[in-house]
Inverse folding.
């Protein structure tokens, strides 16, 4: 029971990170109907931005709490800003010129962009893993079993879950209340009609990529703080799993992306805990295949209608 | 076909209604002021400058953290190493490049690209067109000599410049040749002539290397074997991606199945290469059917993700199932192929002994070379023939419009499955050849990067073009062999994929000759291929 609770907490934390990345996939898919394969690597770029920022401000676990939080906030905002520029540029260079091209073209450039980002970061930042000493330590013990196994939720886990929940709330409000969110939903339904009614479709699509990248940067920073080690290749696996999450939740649906993220995080964690660590990626990838085959519209998605 | 340097490669064959589609597209894509194509009421130079400044600012934001601050391990944890010089160079290059492009192409009333097109297409050549060509040549020379000052790009940039210049030269030469030969012999089958030349050259290669480069013979043959292996894989994947339009990102899985089938059959049952070769193909095709059956009803982009997942699953299983596959250590001592039962060994009964030659390790290399040459040629011939058969025509129809296919009574599932299985079979053959050539295989040879590389070959060459695949493989192999570029290999591959898709979405050799046609042959341009949800 205690072991289970601990795994539940770990799974929720991991799931929050996947959920944040999955939002980027689901939004882009909703608006232009393509899989932004490079999104996982945008997440990786975000993690690197956060790493550089954290080294620059030079916080350690010994920094007083208030200063530490202020510094983390500044780094987070900076990482979001710089990563968004990457998201915007990727769309501008690789996807916008291909609107109206044949079906596979944007997917191929997305794969190309993914390769470019991975190798660019490998060249300019080095291929070795980047370890970061833990900055946020400690935690709250929740319960203890008879054998002395303590269930605890660490501070960083709490921060990740809280940040994710807050961002999700802000983001959902933005989509449902602001004019930006309205134009986004309008473009999602019918881009041409939206353009006729005065919505700037190009800008809306660009902003979608910007927000997706910003959320991926948050996920990247949380990943960095949680695991304390990143390299240029983390985007590949995280990207596929987050995409799985988006599909599982129903692609195009924001709550779906979050739900899918949590489910994937939980499945992966419990699989590692109770079956085998070696095959945890197989579990996640199999879920992708199974979902797409048997439940292509996901848990919360609308079934897609083919139009001629 | 229009000249190779036109921005609209298939302009001569535009179907009716394409203009309307174009206008619609241009209207839908009209961007914000900084990125619109210049308004008539604005001064183009000021506009260009403004745009270049914005691009430079964006470049600064992009590269300042990642390039400007390198994370390096110091004595007490990680530190950052500033490299502002590199950032300055990159930003300057972006600024100047964007400015030049704006002035001469994007915001100019007479874009350089159009001048070039005129140069190659029209009989009369104006002095200004010559000037445009000269400017482009000057820029190429500048790239060639101006690079090399960045600390994180040592000598690499000059090699890139040399390659780009070489490519541009080839394109120019072909275009000029067409300009002067074209009018006289309009129906000259350039592709076939070039293909035949390639095959003749390939057949004679061992002799050529022996006569002219006896010292580097081994090196050249090894390179040729690698090139042919990738050509074979590219042709196999072309059936899946190019003909049938199914984006298979897990192609390397079938390559792995082929390699491991042979290695394991040899290891457990002691079977020889020649028995295992067909078995490996059959097994890979079976795997293609098994994996393909459930996923082929998916939309194109979902299919891509699922195949990538399958590729990874197979690799992870190969790594972790140590008892059977040897795990991450792989399998070694895989038997080498024999010459009709005669092994390539030193001493009694070996190849050299039987034929009364002095022993040389080169014999085996030459034999391997001819094996892969024959395998690749078979793949190419079968693929080319299949394309003309009903199943090939069904593949192409499926690629263009799945819904139309279904309404015309084509069984999409079996059609897709056949493409998938045939592609997998070729990968299986190539895999078992890879195993026998290396003598050692491990799961690391079959990662996703390898899949992307094979896909890049197909994409760069032109989806569906056989000759294009050969040219792309030779180009990429050259890039991969330049030692200064070792680090930048995949970066160049990725950039090339993006550039080619943006510039010429159908690849270097991009006309698609329909295999079935009514009355006259027409090239299919990208314009009338609808964006179906296949």
């Amino acid at each position: 029971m205690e072991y289970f609770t601990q795994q539940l907490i770990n799974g929720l934390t991991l799931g929050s990170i996947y959920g944040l990345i999955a939002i980027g996939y689901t939004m882009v898919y909703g608006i232009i109907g393509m899989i932004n394969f490079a999104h996982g690597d945008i997440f990786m770029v975000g993690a690197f931005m956060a790493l550089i920022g954290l080294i620059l401000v030079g916080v350690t676990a010994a920094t007083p709490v208030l200063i530490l939080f202020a510094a983390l906030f500044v780094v987070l905002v900076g990482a979001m800003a710089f990563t968004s520029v990457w998201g915007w540029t990727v769309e501008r260079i690789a996807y916008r010129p291909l609107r109206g091209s044949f079906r596979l073209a944007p997917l191929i450039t997305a794969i190309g962009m993914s390769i470019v980002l991975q190798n660019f970061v490998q060249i300019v930042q080095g291929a070795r893993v980047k370890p970061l000493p833990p900055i946020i330590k400690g935690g709250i013990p929740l319960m203890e079993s008879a054998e002395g196994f303590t269930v605890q939720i660490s501070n960083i886990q709490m921060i990740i879950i809280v940040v994710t929940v807050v961002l999700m709330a802000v983001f959902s409000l933005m989509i449902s209340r602001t004019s930006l969110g309205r134009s986004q939903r309008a473009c999602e339904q019918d881009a041409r009609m939206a353009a006729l009614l005065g919505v700037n479709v190009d800008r809306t699509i660009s902003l979608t990529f910007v927000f997706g990248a910003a959320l991926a940067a948050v996920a990247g920073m949380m990943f960095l703080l949680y695991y304390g080690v990143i390299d240029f290749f983390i985007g590949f696996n995280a990207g596929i799993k987050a995409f799985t999450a988006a599909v599982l939740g129903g692609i195009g649906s924001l709550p779906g992306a979050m739900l899918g993220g949590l489910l994937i995080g939980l499945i992966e964690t419990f699989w590692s805990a109770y079956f085998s660590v070696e095959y945890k990626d197989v579990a996640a990838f199999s879920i992708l295949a199974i979902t797409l085959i048997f439940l292509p519209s996901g848990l919360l998605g609308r079934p897609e209608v083919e139009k001629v | 076909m229009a000249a190779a340097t036109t921005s609209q490669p298939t302009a001569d064959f535009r179907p009716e209604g394409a203009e309307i589609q174009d206008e619609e597209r241009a209207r839908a894509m009209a961007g914000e002021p900084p990125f619109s194509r210049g308004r008539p009421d604005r001064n183009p130079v000021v506009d260009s400058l403004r745009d270049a400044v914005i691009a430079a600012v964006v470049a600064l934001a992009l590269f300042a953290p990642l390039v400007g601050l390198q994370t390096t391990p110091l004595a007490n944890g990680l530190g950052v190493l500033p490299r502002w010089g590199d950032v300055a160079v990159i930003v300057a290059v972006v600024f100047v490049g964007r400015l030049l492009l704006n002035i001469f192409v994007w915001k100019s009333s007479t874009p350089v690209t159009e001048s070039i097109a005129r140069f190659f297409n029209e009989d009369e050549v104006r002095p200004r067109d010559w000037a445009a060509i000269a400017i482009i040549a000057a820029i190429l020379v500048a790239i060639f000599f101006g690079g090399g000052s960045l600390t994180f790009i040592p000598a690499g940039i000059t090699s890139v410049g040399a390659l780009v210049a070489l490519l541009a030269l080839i394109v120019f030469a072909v275009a000029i040749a067409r300009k002067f030969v074209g009018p006289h012999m309009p129906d000259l089958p350039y592709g076939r002539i070039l293909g035949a030349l390639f095959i003749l050259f390939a057949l004679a290669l061992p002799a050529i290397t022996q006569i002219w480069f006896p010292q580097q013979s081994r090196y050249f043959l090894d390179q040729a074997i690698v090139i042919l292996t990738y050509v074979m894989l590219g042709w196999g994947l072309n059936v899946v991606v190019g003909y049938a339009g199914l984006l298979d990102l897990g192609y390397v899985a079938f390559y792995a199945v082929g390699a491991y089938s042979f290695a394991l059959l040899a290891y457990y049952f002691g079977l020889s290469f020649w028995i295992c070769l067909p078995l490996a193909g059959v097994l890979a095709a079976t795997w293609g059917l098994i994996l393909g059956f459930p996923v082929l009803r998916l939309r194109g982009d979902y299919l891509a993700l699922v195949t990538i997942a399958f590729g990874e699953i197979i690799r992870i299983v190969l790594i972790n199932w140590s008892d059977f596959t040897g795990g991450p250590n792989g399998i070694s001592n895989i038997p080498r192929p024999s010459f009709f039962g005669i092994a390539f060994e030193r001493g009694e009964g070996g190849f050299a002994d039987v034929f009364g030659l002095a022993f040389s390790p080169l014999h085996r290399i030459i034999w391997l070379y001819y094996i892969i040459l024959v395998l690749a040629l078979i793949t190419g011939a079968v693929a080319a023939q299949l394309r003309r058969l009903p199943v090939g025509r069904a593949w192409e129809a499926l690629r263009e419009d799945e819904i139309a296919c279904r309404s015309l009574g084509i069984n999409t599932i079996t059609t897709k499955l056949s493409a998938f299985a045939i592609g997998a079979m070729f990968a299986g053959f190539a895999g078992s050849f890879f195993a026998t050539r290396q003598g050692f295989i491990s799961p690391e040879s079959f990662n996703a990067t390898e899949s992307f590389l094979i896909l890049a070959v197909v994409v760069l060459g032109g989806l569906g073009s056989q000759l294009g695949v050969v040219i792309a493989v030779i180009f990429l192999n050259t890039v991969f062999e330049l030692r200064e570029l070792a680090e930048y290999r995949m970066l160049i591959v990725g950039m090339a994929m993006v550039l080619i898709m943006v510039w010429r979405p159908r690849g270097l050799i991009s006309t698609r000759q329909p295999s079935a046609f009514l009355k006259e042959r027409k090239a299919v341009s990208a314009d009338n291929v609808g964006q179906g949800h296949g």
Observations:
- Chain B has 20 helices and two strands.
- The two ends of chain B are 28 Å apart (CA to CA).
- Chain B has a mean pLDDT of 78.
- The CA atoms of residues 462 and 489 of chain B lie 20 Å apart.
